[in-house]
Amino acid sequence: MYFSSLRIVSGSSMALLHYSKETSYLLPPNNEDWEEKGIPDFVYGQKELIVEGIQWPRNAPSALDIPTRFDSALCSAWRQRVELGLFRYRLGELQTQTLPGAVGFVAQLNVERGVQRRRPQNIKSVRQAFDPEQFNFNKIRPGEVLFRLHRKPNDCRAVQQEDILVIINVSPLEWGHVLLVPEPTLGLPQRLLPGVLRAGLETVLLSSHPGFRVGFNSLGGLASVNHLHLHGYYLAHRLPVEGAPSEALDPGGHLYLLQAVPAPGFLFYTSGPGPDLEALISRVCRATDYLTDHEIAHNLFVTRGAPPGKASTSTILTGVRVILWARKSNFGIKKGEAFNVALCELAGHLPVKTYQDFSSLTEEAALALIQDCLLPPAQADEIQEALVALMAQEEL
Predict the structure, then answer these.
(1) What is the DSSP letter of 28?
(2) Quick one: CA dihedral 116, 118, 124, 128, positive or negative?
(3) Which residues, in sequence order, are CB contacts of 126 under 8 Å at separation 6+?
(4) Which band of pLDDT confidence, cut at 50, 70 and 90, is reported for residue 164?
(5) How many angstroms separate the CA atoms of 181 and 184, rounded?
(6) Cα 396 from Cα 394, distance rounded (Å)
(7) Residue 104: left (phi > 0), alpha (psi -120 to 50), or beta?
(8) Active centre residues (catalytic)
(9) Could you give the residue ranges of the DSSP H alpha helices within 294-372?
(10) Longest dimension (CA), the chain
């Protein structure tokens, strides 16, 4: 069986065309056989992690002619789940606009997500323990799991990584919206760990699509489920955080302050897999551990982008940026606002809930909503000093 015209972004000018004989990630026709089929494995090695040659097309419309095995597996399986009706709504073409102004916000109208997404759990602490009685990923339907992601066992150059389930988000933000979940039966709370962060970074490198991004919301940072997971999704639009300027905060060049974006954030950068990526994972998790231990909510966003330093307008994406924002805690969804501020909004992607808000939203109004979620300057400075000190410990 062949798959043709594997559309990565619904209704977009960017399409992913591919023909493949790969069928193992599709469910059997009879749903009674889904559980018996088991979860297929997606096993990858270091050589499949793409560092160079990824860039945004200069002219639209355009197609990515050389998708990766990862893109093909994810998108064919995800599209089949759409056809099987496993989502809370069928994601159609999303109205999209770039808001006029200096930031370059990408706003999308997604009414169904605003209305039909699962009600967030009752969260009271960034360090709240996992509760098996609440909804968690052990309670999903068998068909919602696309595949199990893990490294080749004989890939000696890689740190051994635990298996990660790739699961559909039944209330998708965009085409291909999935969750990366470490072994669900472990009952891990929503606190970032090195293994799942490594998986998130490597899925970005496994994709040839410049707009495949990964992110994490902490408890209090609008995570709606207290069960460890990352988000991953395709968005065929450049975002401000890809090339925004930054300044080094430590002599070793390990931590930067991202500037001229919707919200100042801490930037970590890697040019590719190997020791540099492992060091970045360690630094990021030390930073998020500090924030969690001090009851500070946070959001994290992983995207291909330019090296730290001056602003870049280049379409070529040379490495991976990890941006971390410390923010005010918000335990619940605020009603009546155009959008909720979490990982994608801080990066410049605004899923808007109503047509009225979508048609009237301005850059000024978007910035006001985002800045209302930021910490007071004195507390932000204190956190910056603490993270710089953490990075300095690495040099000792």
Answers:
(1) P
(2) negative
(3) 218, 219, 220, 221, 291, 292, 295, 296, 297, 329
(4) very high
(5) 7
(6) 6
(7) left
(8) 229
(9) 343-347, 355-360, 363-371
(10) 60
DSSP letter for each residue of 180-224: EEE-GGG---S---HHHHHHHHHHHHH---TTEEEEEE-TTBT--
The count of C-alpha atoms lying within 13 angstroms of the C-alpha of 93, restricted to the half-sphere facing its C-beta, is: 6
Residue for token digits 């930021």? 374
Report d(CA 371, CA 261) in Å as an integer: 11
CA distance linking residue 138 with residue 257, whole number of Å: 38
pLDDT > 70: percent of the chain: 88
- Reading the block at residue 43, the tokens are 């096993």
Helix segments in the chain, DSSP class H: 34-37, 69-83, 111-116, 194-206, 275-293, 343-347, 355-360, 363-371, 377-395
| pLDDT tens for each residue of 348-376 | 999 999 999 999 999 999 999 999 999 99
Helices and strands, counts by H and E, the chain: 9, 16
How many residues would you count in the chain? 396
Q: Which residues face 270 on adjacent strands?
A: 320
Angle of CA points 73, 161, 229, to nearest 5°: 65
Residues paired with 109 in a beta bridge = 352
pLDDT in tens, 239-275: 999 999 999 999 989 999 998 889 999 999 999 888 9
- Residue 241 tokens read as 């955080």
Entry pTM: 0.92
Pairing of strands 106-109, 349-352: parallel
C-alpha 55/C-alpha 62 separation (Å) is 12
Give the sheet arrangement for strand 106-109, strand by strand.
96-98, 106-109, 349-352
- Residue 395: predicted pLDDT: 61
